[in-house]
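Methods — Computational structure assignment.
A single polypeptide chain was analysed. Its primary sequence is given first, followed by the predicted tertiary structure written as structure tokens.
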Amino acid sequence: MANESEGGLRYQPRPRPEWVRGANAMGRAIDARGVVLLDERSLLETAMANTGLSDFGDDAWREPFRILLDDLERHADLHLVGRLMTRSDLLVHLEGRLQVIDWYKRHPEVESEKIDAPVFVVGLPRSGTTIMEEILGADPNARSVHMWEAKFPCPPPRPSDPKPDPRIARADALVGLQDAITPEWASMHKVGGDLPVECIEFTYSSFVSYAFSASFYVPSYTRHVAASDHRSAFEWHEKILKLLQSTGRPHHWLLKGPTHLPVLPALFERYPDARLVLMLRDPVKATASVVDVSGTLYAMRSDNTALNKVHGQFIDGHPAVHALQRVIDWSESGTIPKDRIQAVPYLDFFADPERSLEKLYAGLGLPLPDASRQAMLGYIANKPKDKFGHHDYAVGSSDLIASERQKWRAVQEWFGVKSEL
């Protein structure tokens, strides 16, 4: 829960489940670092032993990987459950990388796949990107990446494969740990083995990702990622899409990545014909929710609540303002193609979903057959509000809201975003 403190909002953790408290107490009594290793040698050797593979591909990932590991040990202050989760996640990323490189070596024809005009849902965190991906994903012509495919992309699924794929249950078990450790997470951001995911879930293995900064206090790594051109991340991004597409070409790819917002020039460099759905919501309200969400992500892995005031890219309102201001500047200067960015104010969309979908599809240059229209409208009509619980979060005093509103005023006016607070 976020509470106002020292002129801003600060996350206050909810009580932990008893089993997590017990495990972490044990971790304080033993040598957790010696028991749960997060060093490069141990991780690489285990990943290679688990897969029987040794080729990790080019070396662009190694420097950020090493900086991340150093920060995890020096700054992240992980509790025992957090160390276990982190080692497990890193091994999934490394093993996935080994398997993808091996698949391309055995199937070089995959490289010739071409990703045509993908659609990306982007926006600041908590601006409605998730619900928009779900709605647009109800279109039978859209192809999203699901959690199990992101975590375990090899072998790429084929239409003739038995259903359900056993990797779904494996992914469910892994991501279900988040809800078990911090039960409030389910009301904030529902994840599941067969649910669509953000691009970060399959670009983790590039090790150039703002996602790590959202889950850990890793200051050197965050600075490194911010200074990166993100080319290696988008190269890996395309590699995964080509692999998944090699067994069945979609009408169009539907992808989602709030963390793409600061690096849109790199996205368009990799995908020159990309089309963007830019979700816009009252940024003061969204930022308040982000404080709570990011605090919960930190609390999954650390008991040190002091770290929650030094989050990554989007917690302080100023970088978020800067991110949207850069979108304006890039659009006006021609750095990114303005005509392929469809701005969608959240409140306006849900005021008239049918008309909004027609306008959006026309702007994206996509056909909107009646079957697609009805599938998306049906999803909206049938989606239960707060299905996984209500996310209750503080937004601060009227003085704090007024102060934050002033930071955002120019951006809100340029995009025409209504205030909700």
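Note: Residues 47 and 95 are 5 Å apart (CA to CA).
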